[in-house]
# Entry
Amino acid sequence: MAEKLYTTTRLEAFSDGVLAVIITIMVLELKVPHPDGFAGLLSIAPTLFIYLLSFTFTGIYWINHHHLVRRVEQCDHRVLYANLSFLFGASLLPFFTSYVIEKRSSSFSVALYAASMIFTAICFFLLRLAIGRLLRRTGGLQPEDSATQRKHIFSLGLYIAAIPLAHFHPHIALGAITMVTVIWILPTSHSDEYPRD
# Structure
C-alpha cells in the first residue's frame, strides 16, 4: 500500500504561527529598567543580549525551516512528527531564555540553556533527515545538503562543549553558543541559499 502523503501548506502555516508566538513570548520578558537614561539601558544589557541571542536562533530556525520545507510539495508522517518535535523544542526556548536572565547567567542556567539548544537542534536535525528521505526518493538531494549536515553536527559539538565550559566560565560558554549563530549566518559552501539551522 502506498504511503499517505500530505501537502506542506498547513505544516508551514502552523510552524510560522508557533515561531511567531515564541518570539512574542520572549519579548515580553524585556522590562523597562528603573534607572533613567543610559545607565538604565546599561543595567539591562545582559538581558538584551540573551534576548537577542534567542531571537537570532529562532529567526535562523525560521529561515532554515522555510528553505527546507519548500523543497518538497508533500510530506509524510515522519515529517509531521519530526516537525512537531522541533516546534516542541523551540517552544521551550522562551522559558530557558527567561531562566538565564533571572539567574543572571549562572553556571547552571547557561548549561541548561545550552542543553535546550542541543535538544532543539537534534529535533531540527530529525526534520532535516525526514525531508532528506523524501528528497532522496525524488533525486532532489544536492551536494550542499551534506555540507549543511556537517555544519549541523559541528554546531551540536559546540553546544555540547558549552555545558562543561559553563561550570567554569559561563560567559565563555555563552560565547561558544553565540558562535553557532555566526556559523549559520555565514553561507554554506557551494550554496546560494540563506543560512540553515
